[in-house]
Amino acid sequence: MAFRITPRDTAFYDMFTEAGRNVAEAVDVLTGLVDPNANREAIAKALREHEHTGDAITHRIIRQLNTSFVTPFDREDIHRLASALDDVVDEVEAAADFIVLADVGRLPPLMVEQIHLLQRSAHETAEAMSRLKTLRDLEPYWIEVNRLENEADRVHRKLLSKLFSGDYDALTMVKLREVADGMEDAADALEHVAHAVESIAVKES
What residues contact 12, with CB distance under 8 A and at least 6 apart? Predict the structure, then answer.
């Protein structure tokens, strides 16, 4: 690590840890949709609360960024990381909300696989956020999240192929594709978080 003689505002670490925890908790709530008998309205409501929590954390980070003379990382990287974490919860909440509003039926197995991949990536992310202060041993994190995102891409392509196979009526296909794309966007957002962390780690090494 580069030697610094200027004190840095350490409040960001706690806020990023909180944001990471909110991401993991939100995706854990999302996994409830795997159960065909789940109360989807309750799940969507809980995710809206996590989305509001994520927004509040992001606003605190930006406010801290605007009032801090010295920051632990580049300001651009702090903003990028905060936005990417917020995007994950936004995408997850939007997908769940659409499932309720469009009365999407049973989720196909490949979509269940998408959700489980998101859960693994979200927990990797939450754990990494708690280690930003030291920036130690973070490379395995972004490598694993990139691997999970590649796997999510593969599952998404297989799911789209299945949806266009003729096994589903047109309306069901359109609904499920909207959800599948939302899950893919959430996986992409998690990868963007990993890229932001990698950028920080490289600059600070």
Answer: 61, 64, 65, 71, 72, 73, 78, 132
- CB count in 10 Å sphere of residue 204: 15
pLDDT in tens, 168-201: 999 999 999 999 999 999 999 999 999 999 999 9
Rounded CA separation 205/200 (Å) = 9
pTM for this entry: 0.92
* Contacts by 155-161, CB closer than 8 A, 24 or more apart: 155/110, 155/113, 155/114, 155/117, 156/114, 156/180, 156/181, 156/183, 156/184, 156/187, 158/110, 159/108, 159/110, 159/111, 159/114
Asked if residues 93 and 34 have their Cβ atoms less than 8 Å apart, the reply is: no
The span from the CA of 168 to the CA of 118, in Å, is: 25
What tokens were used for 89? 């919860």
pLDDT tens-digit series, residues 6-45: 345 578 999 999 999 999 999 999 999 999 899 999 999 9
Structure tokens at 182: 């939302």
Residue 117 contacts residue 151 (beta carbons within 8 Å): yes
User: What is the C-alpha to C-alpha distance for residues 176 and 191, in angstroms, rounded to an integer?
Assistant: 23
Neighbours of 68 (CB within 10 A): 15
